[in-house]
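Table S2 (continued). Query chain:
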Amino acid sequence: MTPPNAANAELFFSQATGSLADAPNQPLDSLLDRTLMEAMASQTQRMQTMADELNQARQSLQERKLLERAKGVLMASQHLSEAQAHKVMRQMAMNQNRRMTEVAQSILALAHALPLALEPTNSART
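Corresponding output:
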């Protein structure tokens, strides 16, 4: 890509800095048009890539939160350590050929459906 010549640069900057009424009625040079379009396309691509990365990071964070909540349920209901709860969930995922997030969703659904069955009773503590 070759840089625009000085005359084209002067025309561009005079149009960019002047008012629209003062701008001549001639289009920008085709080379300058292509350069601007390429810059816009490149910027659009970078922005799309960053948006995709941001969405992926948000999804990973949501999955992490889901896993942590499910581990918390297992830790509270089964009196497990965090490492043990993680191991139980990993084993369940492998045995059922499911993703850890799917297992975590199942654990949380069960915890919401049967909250009393998963909570330790007062009589068991005394």
